[in-house]
Records
---
Amino acid sequence: MSLSLLAHATGIAALGLSLNGLVNRCDHTLRRTNSVASLLWTLNNLLLGATSAAAMSALSATRTTAADLVHRRGERARHWACAAFVLIALAASALTWQGWPTLLTASASVAVSFGVFYLAGAQLRFVMLVSALLWSYNAWLIHSPEQIMGNSLGIAAASYGVWRTRKTAKQDDPVQQAAMPQITHRVRASTVL
């Protein structure tokens, strides 16, 4: 198998996993699929010669896995883990500096570090949306069709994920559910008169 074919294959597989996680309502599934997708994006970036992006993708895989493990523990563990991953992202960016693209991928990594450790639902997916926007320039710069498509579809999937989790959260909110029958009853009463 040629390196070019392997690069395309890893990009397509990573794209599928990324999209699956973003549209899924379960945050645990999002974190798990994002971890595996990040490993594949790491390989994809290495095959394309984008070392800074590969470092950020490898960090993403590790960070997302750690966030899923630490998520059930106390606040202190989350604070330390998040701080460690932010510092590692900044150090990796400095070591693999390639100009503006590195600044954008580092910003995406810092934002997602905060998101996976502290946010859930629509807010987490919104951070993923911002991350996809920041990664879009890198994808365009290294001429990776899978990453360009991945970020474009990632933006759409994250937008849908934000909408879907907000819609589900409203349906699951007992306060809003209790208020809905009253509103419906009032509408019915006013239409009768």
Note: Helices lie at 3-23, 27-48, 51-70, 75-95, 100-118, 121-141, 145-172, 174-192.
---
Amino acid sequence: MWKTVIMRFFNRLNLNNFNLNLNEMKKNLLLFFLVLSITNISAQCWQSIFTNDFHSFAISNNGILLGWGWNQEGQLGDGTTTTKNNPTQIGISTNWQTISIGLVHSIALKTDGTLWACGRNTSGELGDGTNIERNSFTQIGTDNNWIFINAGSYYSVAIKNDGTLWAWGKNFSGELGDGTNLNKNIPTKIGLSTNWVSVYAGNDNTIAKKSDGTLWAWGTNGYEILGNTPRQIGTDTNWQSVYIGSNHTIASKTDGTLWAWGRNNYGQLGNGNNVNSNIPILIGYSNTWQNISAGEAINLAIKTDGTLWAWGYNGNSQFGDGTIVNRNSPKQIGTDTNWQSVYSGGNHTFGTKTDGTLWAWGLNQNGQLGDGSYINKTTPALLTCPQLSNANFIQNNKTIKVYPNPAKSIITFDFGNIKILNDWSYKIVNSLGQEVMNGVVNSNQNIILLNKLNGQGIYFVKIYNESNKLMDTKKIIVQ
């Protein structure tokens, strides 16, 4: 990528003509370093992306959760029901691990193995034992052994570290797999198997994989009733990854081949026609598929050569090819060969490149692209890192003080009447959320040199106790 930027810069300089004056050269140099700066900033904050039809989340490199898009039922978990068109920091926790998004609810897993949820709860999809909507992330139970989560439209599924499978929420079509069609508002164990490794929820159907490489399904996929208990799909034992749309499924095998089944009205099965299939069918002859994502009636995939491909429904330019033409076989999008991962929201798409940059395109009526607008994008557009929100980030523990503020070369911690028996720790992050300093602090060792900071500006000092619990965050200005 840097080669491309530099070549564009020198092409603009047009040194062969030798007709640039000093001011023109200065402007071109400024342009070059501005592009360099924007791209560098964009490459530094995104750790993982999660999206669905109307809202999106990202986890930053330092574990902070960011959310944007439609928020009418509190599904962003920021304590409001206000829609956001820019990435907005959600709370102050820095230990988010993964998020999964339903239609209007969200479930999340923290690094400590605890489960959290927010948004609509009419069918019990949050799993907190009630049917009350939550606009802030609420812990679900007290278990800390959750390892895999996935949200369907109005239900949720998860796996614990003992290999057991759990589900809760809407169950009209048997999508929970517990042998009934009754909704559940708490996590309910599904069967007796202890070798589940992944599970994916759609509109009304669920697909799961066991450690022996077999694939299982239940619920209904829109035109075929699968039943309300897991049933095996074929006899193959080499399934690797599964991706589920509204009424179709796409899965990869360990040999790199790609297979699909279900509804095919927009060509989402990718086999060159629009005929539904109730058994897995091979997509083309390629065995170089690497990263795949399924949306409502669309699939996107990246090959091992870094190229991006799409097929299915494209009515909102979610392919990113500048058209609204549907495709019933995989089509390469652009010519870039540095795509790393892709995430389908159904009518919009996110993609990351090997340089760490994040790109977005497609429908944006609810701000789900996170670019600060409500304008649709027909081709990939670069997203820059958001600045941290002071209001969400700063706690207000008046006992702990950090001074002087503004500071120059040192800061001092004052813990007041708090007795520190063991070492506490601190982290200093800049306004982009990047950690720039860390260390140990206690009542005797409470003066910190700021020699490792990246110059003047606004920083946040995060203070943790001996159990690594965040006790306070202070905003400081370094001059």
Note: The longest helix spans residues 22-42.
